[in-house]
């Protein structure tokens, strides 16, 4: 028998990989805060053709992995005793510990704003939640093999193209801006290695690839497959393990990678030089501050 007072947290997000991960972390932090059990709800679609367990191993559990008795209990209480947060419940500066703890047996956090733009919303559960995102062994092996070849400090560069060409188009930074960032960093730290992660085509990225120290790996370009999503996770984990992340504005991919690795991030905006100086002065420990 399942205890009648057992409670759950669940969520649904049909977006891409990084957006799902942001909401997943917020839901898990809320589950820890309210002593509930997190039920992962990832369905394959064209935005992310992978389930949570296709990518990770760990404590959070999907509905399919519950025992029969608990599955029946969860379905029952979800139908009759479910609470959903309104969109925008968390305001700037608030984290998961500021949320109410309703008496409902199932709480859905699907509508909560999970942005990492203003910092982590995970409160005191930040490290515990991030430690729970353990990639599957075959994914971890590929990340470690790639990163293991670099002995010098690394800078990850995320150039988002793909669907952003239709979403933001004119607002996207020109590739020459990333080139300028790389050239300045190469002057400041000649030993640094630049790792390029992008869904753009080679012709567009050529000016960046020709800067000298930009490294790329062979990837699965078809994102609408399980292998493609696993490959995208490898990109994200690689970014998280660099010393500094340079990322496209508006993209949650680079932002989540920086949060996952607890690394400074510089958005390729017009004020990128100011951001870079702040990152150097506050967080970068692998090099001397520029004069």
Automatic annotation (TrEMBL):
Name of the protein in its database record: Glycosyl transferase family 11
Protein species of origin: Gloeocapsopsis crepidinum LEGE 06123
